[in-house]
């Protein structure tokens, strides 16, 4: 059996980040959920009312022999805007903040170096505001949020927000995309 690792990212609506990361070879599972808050077992409604402090996040289970944590970061920082505070596209609120929740000291160090390199390269016109926090708890989102894009391909929100992220992954990270997804 393949030894897997996990990574947890938030960058706007979890439906869109989930759909983009599922394109990648070596990613076994992407689960939408909530993290970074102060309430146990938050609900979508409470998170949306900003009562819990949680962000909408995805937890990525991946094979580090096929795709690295740094590769995942590269995709994540490409498919969302890490320079907007509490906002991604049409979604506004602290639950849509850019956040990386690390699970090990190694992950923390990789993210810190990655962000320093992005800023040194001038990758963005504005400063990166992505939060970096240890993952204390991950709460799986309600079942109707899981695999939302796959289950609702004609949803207008997904057409306008998830599909461009998927296209970007397929174009910019073709070498990391699952063979069956390559155009």
Q: How does this structure look, described?
A:
The protein has about 180 residues and is an alpha+beta fold. The chain has a single domain (about 5-175), classed as 2-Layer Sandwich (Peptide Methionine Sulfoxide Reductase, Chain A). About 35% of the residues lie in helices and about 20% in strands. The protein has helices at about 15-20, 45-50, 70-80, 105-120, 150, 155-170, and strands at about 5-10, 25-35, 55-60, 85-90, 90, 100, 130-135, 140. Helix 4 links the parallel strand 6 and strand 7. Helix 1 (about 15-20) packs parallel to helix 6 (about 155-170) and helix 3 (about 70-80) crosses helix 4 (about 105-120). It is globular and about 40 Å long. The model has no long low-confidence stretch (mean pLDDT about 95).
Summarize the structure.
The chain is α+β, with helices and mostly antiparallel strands. It is 34% helix and 22% strand.
Annotated CATH topology:
Peptide Methionine Sulfoxide Reductase, Chain A
- How far the N terminus sits from the C terminus, by CA atoms, comes to 30 Å
The sequence of SSEs as H and E is: EHEHEHEEEHEEHH
Low-confidence stretches: none
